[in-house]
Structure formats: C-alpha cells, structure tokens
Amino acid sequence: MPASSIQSYFPSSSPSKVAPGDGFTPEELQLSPPASAWVPVLDYEESDITSLEPGPRHLTLMGRVVNFYDMPKPSKRPKAAQGFVKIMIADDTGTMSVRLWYANTVYPLKLGQLVTLWTVHISQGDGQVGLASNAAPLFTSIFPENERNCHFMIHERSDDGSMFKRPYGALDSQVLPGLMTLKNFVDGGFDVDECKLLVCVKSIGPRKKFTNKNGTTSDLITAIVLDNSSEGYLTLYGSVSGSATAWKPYETVLLIADPGWRIDKTAKLSLNANTQVFIDPTIAEARYLRALAQRLTKKEHVNPPFPHDLFDAEEAELAAVKVLYKLSEIDEFARTNPRERAVGYVSVIVTEVHIVTNYKREMLMSNECCGKPMFASKVKARCHQCDRECTLRINPRILGDVIDETGTISTGKLIFSEAAWEQLLGRTAEQLVTASLDVMKYLEQRLLFLRLTLGFGIHLGSEEIGRLVVWCVKM
Ligand SMILES: [Zn+2]
Q: By CB count within 10 A, which of 66, 357, 387, 427 is most buried?
C-alpha cells in the first residue's frame, strides 16, 4: 500500500498526483511567501516517539538527530522544493524518520543536535527504501517553508546536553541489549540484529572529496575510534560528515546502533539507512570508556598543559608563608601525603639547555592533537590528522636535568606555565621562535648552571603523578 499524503486526510484537498511514497504534490511544493519568525497558530499535543500512531494530529516532538541524509531533487520551477533531508530523530523512548523538505532554507544539521518539530501528520513506512527505515518505521513529511502549520527547529543555545541522552531508555544497572566490543563485532557480531558499538573518538581525519556514482562530488571524513578491545574506522559521507568537526579526540563517545560495515582486519564502519549514532550518551559504559581513553592520552602526552584550574599563580604568590623545599623533601611529601596538594619553592640548577638543537630539529615547540604529538619551531602548526591549526607550547625538553643538592628532576618532566617560561627565558614563546640563532645561543649560555628559584606545585590527586608544575621563576 502506498503511503498516504497528508492531503488525503483532509476532505477539501485534491487527490495526490505524485508517485507513491512522496509526501507532496507539485502544487504543495510551491512556496508561499517566506514567513519570518514562526508562531504556532494551532494547539499542538506534545508526544514522545514511542506513543506515536499514524494519522492526522497536531503534534510537537523533541529528540536528537541520530542520522540524516540529504536527498537533493533540484527543480527549475521557482519556489519549488529543491529536495529533502531524511532525518532520524530519537528520544529516550524510540526513533522516527522525518522528511524535511527545503527550498531556500539550509538547515545546519549535525548528529546529536536537539531538535523540535511541529507536524500535522504521522505516517507508517511501508518498507520502501528511503521512506522510513526499519529502525524508525514511523515518519512525518514536512515542508516548513510552504506549510505554515509545520516547523522544524534546531536548539543550539538552549541545549544543555541533558535531554534525551539515555537512548533506548538505558539504565545504569543493565547492559544495553546488543552492545558488543569492536573485536566481537569483527569476529561475527556484525550479524547480530540490533547490534550496538560504544566507541571513543581517537582521531579525526581531514575532510576529503569523493565522486559519487552519478559523477557529483561530496565530502567524507574518517575518524579512528577505539574501545577497550580494538580500534576501528568510522567514515561519514556527504552532509553528515560535518558532524565530526565537533568531536573531541579521547573525549567524544559514540553509541552506534546497526552500523554499515566492511571488515578488513579491522571494522570499517559507516552510516546506512538504519544506523543510529548517539553522541556522548549518559550511560555507565560511556563514562567508563571515556575514562579509559583519557588515561591513554595522559600517559602519552608530550607537553601537558599547565593545570590552571588546580594552581592559581596569583594566590600562591600572595601566600603568607613561603616555604623553600629540597627536592628530596618534595619526594617524601608525595609519598606520605598521596591526596594532598602543595605549593612552595625550590632552589635549583639547570644542568643542560637545548634551545638551539631543538630549534634546528623543528622541535622548539610541541603539543598534541588527535592523540598525536606535534613539533615545530613555530607558535602554530596544522594537525596532520584533522587539519586544524593548533597553538604549540614551549617544548619542556629544552631543559635537561634540573638538580639541587638532594635530587634530580629529569629532562622534560616539569610543566611550566606560559608565565613561568616567559620569566625564565625573558621573552614570550613567539619572541623565542623568531629570535636569531645568536640570541638562542646566548640564552643557553646564560641559563646553564644558573641558580633559579622555581615556584612549584604538586597535586597527587590527579594522574600527573610525580610531575611538578612551575608557576613562577625567580632568578
Ligand atoms: Zn587534530
């Protein structure tokens, strides 16, 4: 049975002339004059997705975008619809499909967005590809530019990330049905109905172009994802690919239900018509996976940022009691007070300085992006993975061992704040990288075996065990 058009539910309307499965007649696809701010004139009933039934009803629904696909249908007629976006929207109770027709409006859609829609009709999908997927059999077809009783709204500022974050009504006390690891997926789990993967983004590749079968080009982005068993790839094609730019390596967790896949030693995942992607769901497994991923980065980071949230240099500077410690005493303090946070001063000597060598090796500055170390003798550099421009910090390895009479801090282990580097070097990072070689050589000679007082902090509650942070340098 073909899906009914909205008009067939209203006695005064003319019969639909379009092919079965299309929601609108050509007349309906003509635009009315553009409306400015939309104000509902009808009473709309609020509904969750699981309680929807097919038929005409004035409904308003909220949910998050879990999949979408642009279907351009260019028309030369003025004011006609130029295509639609097929969107899957999920709340905590279920998933539905939306055909959002557009003429001039560009909807800046991304996976995970909170949206509200107002519609006058819900239809039952009839299994035809493209109308509504099996995972979201109920659908609505709306053309807000032409139908004043339909509207689609993306919540940007009003989304605090708390609504509809428990897909399938997930409970912390129960494992989600169908949830498996990447390794189990590769080993045959892809055959399981309603299989689900929970992965953390490890890195995001650059935006690339590919040519479709019909000769048009569109974008694709591939992200490397991981869980506690393995790594895999997730490729987003077309307009949905822009969603990946908002993801953060080692932080963003994706729950992917019914992914498209190709197994090639590892899992190569993509989005098909049934796939649903939930971003950062509030479920226990997601929190566990994020903690696991972040532990990986902390071990590897080549230049951890100064923890400004833990140590306030101004406050430390104003402390009434200023204690000078020996390195051995700090070591002892760390062993006996594992939960404490302390600040104080140490008087030390730098035994090696490597500014010139690191400059020549293009390693004067460093940082990490997408979990990969980056080095350059410049303040800014582009990440090879995500193509974003990153700000680099001074490479802590320009200082060799730092010693006092009682102990040593080995190369690269101190975490300087930007201000502390500036006090030590007498210049900003920008001035350092643009200095002449003569100035760099002079700096090395001046700092070598110089007695320095470092204002330090140590916090053993964090994972930076054994690393001192330096918030000021006095000569
Ligand atoms: Zn990057």
A: 66
**Which has the higher per-residue pLDDT, 462 or 120?**
120
CATH of 6-155, one of 2.40.50.140, 3.40.50.620, 1.20.200.10, 3.40.1550.10: 2.40.50.140
Distance from Cα 448 to the centre of ligand 1, integer Å: 35
Do 6-155 and 313-354+397-474 share a fold?
Answer: yes
Residue 158 has pLDDT above 80, yes or no: yes
pLDDT digits (tens, 9 = 90+) for 128-154: 655 667 788 899 999 999 998 999 999
User: What are the boundaries of each domain within the chain?
Assistant: 6-155, 167-300, 313-354+397-474
**pLDDT value of residue 299:** 61
Rounded Cα–Cα distance for residues 111 and 240 (Å): 7
* CA 234 to centroid of ligand 1, rounded, Å: 16
Q: Are 235 and 268 in contact, with CB atoms under 8 Å apart?
A: yes
Q: How many CA atoms lie within 13 A of 286 on its CB side?
A: 21
Beta-strand pair 402-403/408-409? antiparallel
Long-range contacts, 315-320 (Cβ 8 Å, 24+): 316/343, 316/455, 316/457, 316/471, 316/472, 317/455, 317/472, 319/343
Q: Which fold has domain 313-354+397-474?
A: OB fold (Dihydrolipoamide Acetyltransferase, E2P) (2.40.50)
CATH homologous superfamily, domain 167-300: Nucleic acid-binding proteins (2.40.50.140)
Distance CA 275, CA 67 (A): 7
Distance in Å, CA 466 to ligand 1 centroid: 28
Centre of ligand 1 to C-alpha 294, Å, is 16
CB 101 within 8 A of CB 143: yes
Q: Round the average pLDDT of the chain to a whole number and report it.
A: 86
Per-residue DSSP letters for 280-332? S--SHHHHHHHHHHHHHHHHH-SSPPP-TTT--HHHHHT-S---EE-HHHHHH
Give 301's pLDDT tier (boundaries 50, 70, 90): confident
